[in-house]
Amino acid sequence: MSSDRLAVRKTYKLYVNGAFPRSESGRTYEVTDAKGHFLANAARASRKDARDAVVAARAAFRKWSGTTAYNRGQVLYRVAEVMEGRHVQFCEEVAQSEGLSSSKARAAVDAAIDRWVWYAGWTDKLAAVLGGANPVAGPYFDFSMPEPTGVVAVLAPQQSSLLGLVSVLAPVLATGSTAVVVTSKERPLPAITLAEVLATSDVPGGVVNLLTGDAEELGTWLAEHADVDAIDLTGAPAGRAMEFEREAAGTVKRVLRPPATEPDWTADPGLSRMTPFLETKTVWHPIGV
Amino acid sequence: MSSSVFEYAPAPESRSIVDIAPSYGLFVDGEFVDGTGEPLKSVNPATEEVLTEVATASEADVDRAVRAARRAFDKVWGPMRPADRGKYLFRIARLLQERAREFAVLESLDNGKPIRESRDVDVPLAAAHFFYHAGWADKLDHAGLGPAPRPLGVAGQVIPWNFPLLMLAWKVAPALATGNTVVLKPAETTPLTALLFAEVCRRADLPPGVVNIVTGAGETGRAVVEHGDVDKVAFTGSTEVGKSIARAVAGTRKKVTLELGGKAANIVFDDAPIDQAVEGIVQGIFFNQGHVCCAGSRLLVQESIHDEVIASLQRRIGTLRVGDPLDKNTDIGAINSAEQLARIRELSDIGEAEGAERWQPACDLPERGFWFPPTVFTNVSPAHRIARDEVFGPVLSVLTFRTPDEAVAKANNTTYGLSAGIWTEKGSRILKIANQLRAGVIWANTFNKFDPTSPFGGYKQSGYGREGGRHGLAAYLKGHDA
């Protein structure tokens, strides 16, 4: 390839309902690398974009939650496969966004891909681990099973642009909920590349919606939105989590509170990011009547 | 009731087994102490007779109770061998069984529910909850809730008036089994069985401060929820208060479970055994005067059998006996308070004004006390208030559907998601509909069944967290949400 070829630059847009629209507001903001050099103009999602994303996530919920656990596991595994094919691109974007050395960036991308694999293996085990038969004192068959909570709004971590994002998104999908994600404000580019992976990985449109922009404003709108069932406040801007939690109380949302500081995303997450977005359904039926 | 097939002579349970003192204090640190708030009167809703005067805990009283609970957690209950904690709970379960009749009569006097229910449901289930959780105390490592599960500390618990002792058991038993200590606020209209329970704690030699009971109204509850040294808030009650609690704990470390309102659909398909379904409908809405968060208050009946079901339902309702809660023949007792009666009347009037048809059986109600006859509204549209709002009384709204999809859509058309019922002979349909209903408890060919081993709690605005079973333990342990 001739070295004087002019590169074709990518326009970074939102990912809503399986498509890549610009913000309906026409707003964008400048994204720079860790040293302050211009990287791209990202779309700055508006309230209307957030609402469109919730509508898409709600519409996608019935089919995604009804997909067999085995099938959901395969789709999540497929995400890992497709990510692997873009390994170099992710490494470059993570290194630029987070100011990491190439070896550290590679470690983060490796861990992000492996996390999809880990959650892919969970989909068809949760019901056995979290559900079961209840030995009630009477002639009834009684069992409990986990079910996805619905539409989950996720404020993704502000620091870890890819591993952190995957760590909060994959558990929502593994459990059968659909997601509206607000990406890291200053490091949104790996998220949009991840959206391109999702769009080509058999994840149905609307199951994941990614909004680049400011969690400060988007967080408020999602916290008070009546058709959002749960909110993960991990990436809430400092000092705003309490307010978002208060707003979420208006419709009794499930709230995952933010940690005091951004956690070490390489640690084994256990069930801690899945159970907050699971409901337990208990079914009774008489025996012998 | 003149229309009854059989006339029954009154068969009242004797109230001589209970000994109600003229006044009661708070139970703090193992002692009954005076409250500094304005005392409140507890009334027998069946007669409007004042039963006794009960102390009201002020913020300072609640603070004393929380400090006692913290001391007990740090010094006694936390360090105690888990097997010994379990033994205390077994003792409490046995004492409840031994004094079951006394608890049942007191509950019916204070709450207005029929003795048949307090005797056969509330009290035995309360004892069962303690017995069940007693066994967990030294087996938590095996509960699948992670290695070495640790208690949270002090649990602040606020419970409603519809199942006073049973809700106490749902709250206190898992809290103690997991090693927490408790400050519990009973409902202002029904504090008496909680105070008798305090007496049981003393008889069991439960260490002082492990269980503290602070009586009072909403302000006392707020003081419990908002106290800075409470680690865990557990609430059962209205969705409105639940939301204010979720707001109050925002930004704190407090772990919360909320068990709130409901507007359950009870779905009857055309192949259901009608007589069984009618029993289930009656049990679903008239159990405990309909003062049940999971009551089957929306009957969804397949259009082709609507007339047959309604005729059969009306015939059955005509045989229900409304009256003296202490009469062993009574099916429907008194409405718990004048305030609740006013709400039921208001919503029923709105139902009529909005165009639904009200039906009530001929039924003689006692002159004194708070009473409301069993009521069925037909011609109800999904937009009517009586199809959307929780009435919390013996009022059934009937809607129809043609296809299973329509039944599911109508059933899920509510902000609540606590429970639902399905009546059909077809097993595969039960499982499909059960999957599609967005509710925490599904009763298929039965209704209003409860058990300590069976997790209970809601989807959507019916709250979060589960009570009962292995799931219920998670609410009282650090870091475990499943």
Describe the SSE topology.
The complex is a heterodimer of chains A (289) and B (482).
Chain A (H helix, E strand, L loop, with lengths): L27 E5 L5 E6 L3 H20 L2 H17 L1 H12 L3 H19 L5 H5 L1 E2 L6 E9 L2 E5 L7 H12 L3 E5 L6 H11 L8 E4 L3 H10 L5 E3 L8 H9 L4 E3 L21 E9 L3
Helix pairs in contact in A: 1-8, 2-4, 3-4, 3-7, 4-6, 8-9
Chain B lengths: L22 E2 L1 E3 L2 E3 L6 E5 L4 E6 L4 H19 L4 H17 L1 H12 L3 H22 L17 E5 L5 H14 L3 E5 L6 H12 L7 E3 L4 H9 L5 E5 L2 H10 L6 E5 L5 E4 L5 H13 L11 E5 L3 H12 L20 H16 L3 E3 L15 E4 L6 H4 L6 E7 L2 H9 L6 E5 L3 H10 L4 E4 L18 E2 L4 H6 L8
Parallel strand pairs in B: 1-5, 6-7, 6-9, 7-8, 9-10, 11-12, 11-16, 12-15, 14-15, 16-17
Antiparallel strand pairs in B: 2-3, 4-5, 10-18, 13-14
Helix pairs in contact in B: 1-7, 2-4, 3-4, 4-5, 9-10
In short:
With 289 residues, chain A is α/β, with parallel strands linked by helices.
Structure description:
The complex is a heterodimer of chains A (289) and B (482). Chain A has 289 residues and is an alpha/beta fold. Chain A is built from 9 helices and 10 strands. Chain A is globular, with a radius of gyration of 20 Å. By secondary structure, chain B is of the alpha/beta class. Chain B is globular, with a radius of gyration of 22 Å. Chain B folds into 2 domains: 253 residues, Aldehyde Dehydrogenase, Chain A, domain 1 (3-Layer(aba) Sandwich), CATH 3.40.605; 180 residues, Aldehyde Dehydrogenase, Chain A, domain 2 (3-Layer(aba) Sandwich). At the A-B interface, strand 4, helix 9 and strand 10 of A face helix 8, strand 17, strand 18 and helix 15 of B. Chain B: This is Acyl-CoA reductase. Chain B: InterPro entries: Ald_DH/histidinol_DH, Ald_DH_C, Ald_DH_CS_GLU, Ald_DH_N, Aldehyde_DH_dom. Chain B: One of its GO terms (molecular function) is oxidoreductase activity, acting on the aldehyde or oxo group of donors, NAD or NADP as acceptor. Chain B: Keywords: Oxidoreductase.
